[in-house]
Amino acid sequence: MLFPEKLRQLRAESGLKQKDIAKKIGVDIPMYSRFEHGERRPKRETVVKLAKIYGTDVDQLVALWLAFAALNEIGTDKLADKALVYLREELGEAPVPTSVPTEAPAPVEVAPQPKFHIEISTIDPAKQNIVTLLGDSPFPQYYNGEALNLLSRVENDSIDCIVTSPPYWSLRRYGAESINTDNIDEFIESIVAVMGQLHRVMKPSGSLWLNLADTYQNKALKGLPWRIALRMIDEQGWILRNDVVWDKQSSAFDSSFDHLRNTHEFIFHFVKSDDFYYDDEELRLFFNNVTEKKAKEGKTSSGVTGMKYRRNVMSSTALTDEEKQNALAELDKVVDMVNNGEIPDFRMFIRTAEGQVMESKSEKAKSINEKGYYFLLYNKNGTMPSDVWNITPANSPVERYNVFPESLCHLMILSTCPDGGIVLDPYCGLGTACKVAYDLHRRAIGFDVNESYLQKAKEKIQQQPLSLF
Predict the structure, then answer these.
(1) Residue 455, SS3?
(2) Which among 354, 210, 216 has a CA at the least distance from the CA of 272?
(3) Under a CB-based contact definition with an 8 Å cutoff, are residues 394 and 406 in contact?
(4) Confidence of residue 377 (pLDDT cuts 50, 70, 90)
(5) How far lies 420's CA from each of 14, 139, 281, 433, 467, in Å?
(6) Average of per-residue pLDDT across 280-293
(7) Using CA atoms, how far apart are residues 50 and 64, in angstroms rounded to an integer?
(8) CA 445, chain centre distance (Å)
(9) What are the C-alpha distances in Å from 297 to residues 85, 293, 307, 340, 342?
(10) Can you point out the beta strands (E) in 301-438?
(11) Residue 416, Cα to own-chain centre: how many angstroms?
(12) Is residue 14 predicted with pLDDT exceeding 80?
């Protein structure tokens, strides 16, 4: 066991959440998550802090950290195996062999391999589990078959991120489809059954992004997305974090004269625990255009000196003299942060009446109750985006077939799947989610009953330049 695994074990034993630890060591949640997944190395002093927080031996944790650093350095060296023996001996994880060969063994002749090859597998129960088969391969693996059957071969708690869009209900079919029923209740049952299996295979830190479209029957809008979502919440234990309205900004031809044109679909963001991976910076950067000039100049609505807020503090009758002194001292620090380009802007709120107590449990209310003031610091990457996403659908190479736009998948995968994590799409169709995962250095698995779609998905990757981790 080396450093990232040890961190995960210590936190599990402590009962603490990632957000708790991140706050204690002064980093954001995505950064701490990267420590646990081996994607970033903390500083030595941070490792010491972590050891004290977890109540574990400082020297042992630092030694594991050093060994992990060494493995990162030598991992691709031809002598890495020898070095690993010495490292494990030092850490007490494996005995040292009585002798170590002084010469490398003769090279084994290996037949030349193609640049890469992507398999489209059919169901074979005798094969290993699907995530085990994927291994560390950067290339998506596609499986031809029903989602529910294939999911039975996916290991528990093994998938980092699920991005999927099940087929529409009761539309004309062009070729094989994943769900062959015109009965709305059977359609819902089919989707809910697959969602139950997805809950099993997804990691506690994972996310499910489920795109569902509604439809009319006998002049009535059926509410399909919410029927399915509520079943998932009530019966399977899913936690709904957001219902995103995907504004497609266009629609198919609609001859109806008694209801509005439909130009949106729902995308539900589900998790199965409150300790899930989430990188808000990627969402902020995509949706916001924070200019470098503003960050460098540090200009705020109150001016670079914060004079407006100083006057409000000094003239306040609701703050004590000590609270005023503390508020002005902290204001100086925040203004310096703006002028140094650390944050683009801020707002300051102070108690408005003597003896005022805010009943809210928010961070703002707590600060005003305890200190008399609160600073809202703007994120350097912009504000958090809203739950309405204006993204135009992609053009499809297949007649009457809707395709996820890559930008939509890009957002979902970057924000909720760690680098090197596994993305699964159980209704992958033409493989957009898998392609985007590949482009973003995530591993990917796709299922679909239509083999011709999977062939096109495979061709998308083969047309791409090699994406190395």
Answers:
(1) helix
(2) 210
(3) yes
(4) confident
(5) 26, 11, 18, 15, 12
(6) 64
(7) 13
(8) 16
(9) 54, 6, 17, 8, 11
(10) 346-350, 373-377, 388-390, 422-425
(11) 1
(12) yes
**Rounded distance, CA 261 to CA 178, Å?**
27
CA angle, corner 457, sides to 455 and 419, nearest 5? 140
| Order of all β-strands in the sheet with 202-212 | 120-122, 141-144, 443-448, 422-425, 159-164, 202-212, 264-271, 239-247, 388-390
**Cα-only R_g, the chain:** 27
What integer pLDDT is reported at residue 292 of this predicted model?
42
Cα distances (angstroms) measured from residue 31 to each of 20, 37, 127, 274, 298: 13, 10, 37, 17, 25
Contact 38, 70 (CB under 8 A): no
Per-residue b or e along 381-394, where b marks 16 or more CB atoms closer than 10 Å to that residue's CB: bbeebeeebebebb
The pair of three-digit structure tokens given for residue 460, joined into one six-digit string: 């998308």
What sections of 239-362 are H helices per DSSP? 280-287, 292-297, 307-315, 321-339
Please tell me the distance from the alpha carbon of residue 289 to that of residue 452, in angstroms, as a whole number.
Answer: 40
* Residues comprising the chain, all counted: 469
The token pair that represents 104 in the structure block: 């490398």
- Name 83's Cβ contacts closer than 8 Å, sequence gap at least 6: 70, 74, 77
Buried b (16+ CB within 10 A) or exposed e, 406-439: eebbbbbbbbbbbeebbbbbbbbbbbbbbbbbbb
User: Tokens for 207?
Assistant: 């996310």
pLDDT score recorded for residue 175: 44
- Range 377-381 average pLDDT: 76
| CA dihedral sign, ordered 227, 230, 234, 235 | positive
> Scanning the structure block, which residue is given the tokens 């070095």?
83
* DSSP secondary structure code for residue 403 in this structure: B
Per-residue pLDDT band at 259 (split at 50, 70, 90): confident
Is the pLDDT at 93 greater than 60, yes or no?
no
